[in-house]
Write a structure and sequence with these properties.
Mean pLDDT: 80
Shape: extended
Radius of gyration: 37 Å
Strand content: 5-15%
Strand order of the largest sheet: 6-7-10-9-8-11-12
Helix content: 40-55%
Structural class: alpha+beta
Number of helices: 29
């Protein structure tokens, strides 16, 4: 057989091993299958020499490269039943230091460091700390192959030793567990990357591949190998994590000119804080930015930087994001920077109300940046803390908690609340209780009666922020990089807007079922979205629980709750509703419309009795079906102002949009294409002359630099400064590692093999060794017990 023909064909890669294993039947995987039956002969017309001889190295055999030699020897090892690894490589002493020789050995070649140290003795030495029992895989096997670089650029086999001092694996189903034979094909890598980006666990990814391939015997890698490959890809972001994230921001910015982000570095150009928001969220803030929920969450990235999303509520009662930030600390200065950056992204529009927890740093920053915004602390957190502090009192007085809840939630005026609180203190003799005194002194921050005149979209807690954080932790964890975090967060935002679009579609194409034929309900059905109408219908239904009594003719009415004998917790509740029928005005002392944005059930009952209609002043635009229609883009309508055009990027984006509109409208007809091309060239020459007369710099370098370096105000720093990845944040939410304890301080654990407390565990138990070592271990145990 012509040796040149044999040496010139392409060396089989590890993908051929994948094809080989995929042909093994599920029921016969333990049977030996000859390589000639699995791998097709590249030259089937030549029959004079068996194919397996072509896959056995021989002296002076030529190969194209070191990688080709590795693949060839690895395939030979797979056929024979062993694994290989790279060994010594020698380089030229010349300036290029080019590789001149390479040696490949059996994976069992040599001895491990521990084998050399213990001279091959397995077990625990008498006066040493017990070590974990491991299996030694190396047997000092001498099988190897060496190749050298020839003058013609080829690599020639100079040494080949085929003798092994260990048993070879014959079963193809076992060979696939050798490390050098594990391989993930490119199509599988793409699938793994997609699933990993969805935060799917490696174990589940592996099972999905097994299902797709028709069984584990068709998968040429293990679960651990897959996990290591994913970890290897994640480690590629070390040192360039922030750089990749900012590049991703610029990619989004190129697609969405309204995308905004800003970075705050420290003195060492290490990232301290990052804030970003997409264009649609910025536009939605124009309508739904009247109330915000703000909170921080932890353990969402590998740097332990607290995640700080801004949460709002849209016209479908769905939580939406108004941007997100990763901050290194939770001090007042950090929150001040974050809120100022948020205002910059929103063109200076302040929210009317904001809900946070009781963090004093947040409160100080809100007072400084949002002076006219109504700030409210989360009532749920306060009541939960009160339950912990007053647990003994609650157990002693069963009615105390009910009385507190009634006083806090059902008081209609400040005077009524303060009087009710004083009555509770006197009733249960709690005037000296420190925690109740603290709650009363901070009452203006959390008690509902102090916020009834402010629109909060019926929210009194930060539950929506907590729910968003819980969903976020499904997509991220404490090992997530910043680059992957912003990608996952962007997916969450896209999912929210997809849900909003779906609800818009259903609200426009589906007619909800009416509960009654009242004109008020019919009018509400036509203007409100499905979810808002559902809330309105519940209020409308609840209005039938009240009786109406006229106090002042055509002016003041009292709505009193009808007695319900089936409700053991029924209480007498009455509300006063003032009406101006001529102006279609109605106002209830529960302040339900001011707080929730929907007419309360008491007002609806009075309106039905007076046969009034739903006046437009009681229909908030943010709850209507067309609430998000016609939102102005920051880089279109808002660019007309002088302030908006101060940025180079804003001017560039506006002119680019106008130019692209011309291209989109007239590119297709050839006649129009010719006319537009001529006009554009003419206009360009005229503008060039005008610019020269006004001494403007119109060079390409200047324009390109201004656009590349500053698409938004923060991008100039991104291009000029190479930001470093942040260190791990020392925030309050970071997991604290326990103090290192000396073995003497630790409790002696019971070994589950010998059931003795002698300082070892099941991994280092003497019973896992020989009988002689077992006898020595028991004797030492008895001596320690007697002493």
């Amino acid at each position: 057989m012509d040796v040149a023909r044999v040496l010139s064909f392409d060396v089989p890669s590890s993908s051929m091993i994948s094809q080989e294993m995929s042909l093994i039947p599920a029921g016969d995987v333990d049977e030996e299958i000859e390589t000639r039956e699995l791998i097709a002969d590249p030259y089937p017309e030549q029959e004079e020499e068996p194919l397996e001889k072509c896959f056995e190295p021989y002296f002076f055999m030529e190969l194209d490269s070191i990688d080709a030699a590795y693949q060839f020897y690895n395939l030979y090892g797979f056929k024979t039943g062993f694994s290989i690894r790279r060994a010594q490589q020698y380089h030229s002493l010349k300036g290029d230091k080019k590789a001149t020789s390479q040696r490949f050995v059996c994976s069992k070649a040599g001895l491990s460091k521990r084998q050399k140290k213990e001279n091959g003795v397995v077990g625990n030495s008498p006066n040493k700390t017990p070590q974990k029992v491991i299996s030694f895989t190396r047997t000092n096997c001498k099988a190897s192959i060496s190749i050298c670089l020839q003058l013609n650029g080829k690599w020639s086999v100079t040494i080949f030793n085929k003798e092994h001092n260990h048993e070879l694996v014959e079963s193809p189903s076992k060979k696939r567990y050798f490390k050098s034979h594990m391989h993930i094909r490119d199509d599988k890598k793409e699938c793994i990357s997609i699933l990993s980006n969805q935060n799917v666990a490696p174990a589940k990814i592996f099972e999905a591949i097994v299902e797709k391939e028709g069984g584990r015997h068709n998968v040429l890698f293990s679960k651990k190998f897959l996990s290591n490959e994913i970890s290897k890809e994640n480690r590629k972001l070390v040192g360039v994590d922030v750089k990749k994230a900012l590049e991703y921001f610029k990619t989004l910015q190129a697609k969405d000119p309204d995308f905004f982000f800003e970075v705050e570095p420290d003195d060492n150009q290490t990232v301290k804080n990052i804030f970003w928001i997409d264009g649609r969220s910025r536009r939605s803030y124009q309508v739904f930015g009247d109330v915000l929920v703000f909170d921080t969450t932890y353990n969402t990235n590998r740097y332990y930087m607290p995640c700080s999303p801004f949460i709002g509520l849209n016209h479908h009662w769905i939580s939406i994001f108004f941007g997100c930030a990763l901050i290194r600390s939770e001090g007042a200065d950090t929150f001040k920077w974050l809120f100022q950056t948020f205002l910059k992204a929103m063109n200076g529009k302040h929210p009317k109300a904001i809900i946070t927890d009781q963090d004093p740093a947040m409160r100080a920053a809100i007072v400084d940046v949002f002076p006219n915004t109504k700030h409210r602390c989360c009532q749920w957190h306060i009541m939960r803390k009160a339950r912990d502090k007053l647990r003994v009192l609650y157990n002693r007085n069963k009615e105390l908690e009910v009385d507190l809840q009634t006083c806090i939630n059902l008081s209609l005026t400040i005077e009524e609340f303060e009087k009710g609180w004083e009555d509770i203190l006197q009733k249960y003799n709690l005037q000296d209780n420190h925690h109740l005194d603290l709650m009363f002194r901070t009452r203006h921050r959390w008690v509902p009666v102090y916020f009834r005149d402010t629109f909060f979209a019926d929210m009194s807690t930060s539950q929506r922020s907590e729910s968003a954080n819980a969903v976020l932790k499904i997509w991220t964890d404490s090992h997530t990089s910043i680059y992957k975090f912003v990608m996952q967060f962007n997916k969450m935002v896209e999912g929210v807007f997809a849900k909003e679009d779906e609800e818009d579609f259903r609200s426009c194409t589906a007619q909800p079922q009416l509960w009654s034929f009242s004109p008020i309900e019919v009018e509400a059905c036509w203007v409100y979205t499905r979810k808002i109408y559902s809330l309105f219908k519940d209020l409308f239904r609840q209005s039938t629980r009240y009786d109406i009594r006229e106090i002042e003719k055509d002016a003041l009415y009292e709505a009193e709750r009808i007695y319900d004998p089936t409700n053991p917790n029924w209480k007498i509740l009455s509300y006063q509703v003032r009406v101006n029928k001529a102006n279609s005005e109605v106002s209830c002392n529960c302040r339900g419309f001011e707080f929730q944005g929907l007419l309360c059930s008491h007002s609806l009952m009075v309106m039905m009795n007076l046969r009034m209609h739903l006046h437009p002043r009681y229909v908030l635009p943010r709850y209507c079906k067309e609430a998000n229609q016609g939102l102005k883009k920051f880089h279109q309508s808002d660019m007309g102002s002088i302030e908006a055009l101060q940025s180079d990027a804003d001017r560039y984006a506006q002119l680019r949009m106008k130019a692209m509109k011309i291209v989109d409208d007239f590119w297709k007809p050839f006649e129009m294409y010719t006319i537009v091309s001529t006009k554009l060239e003419k206009w360009h020459n005229e503008l060039d002359e005008i610019a020269k007369s006004m001494q403007f710099d119109t060079s390409v370098e200047h324009v390109g630099a201004s656009i590349v370096k500053q698409p938004l105000q923060s991008d100039e720093a991104v291009e000029e400064i190479n930001y470093q990845d942040p260190p791990q944040s020392q925030c309050k939410g970071k997991r604290r590692l326990g103090r290192f304890k000396h073995p003497i301080e630790k409790k002696l654990r019971t070994c589950r093999i010998c059931h003795l407390k002698v300082g070892h565990n099941a991994r280092s138990c003497p019973q896992r060794f020989s009988k002689e070592e077992l006898k020595v271990g028991l004797e030492s145990t008895s001596v320690e017990t007697r002493s």
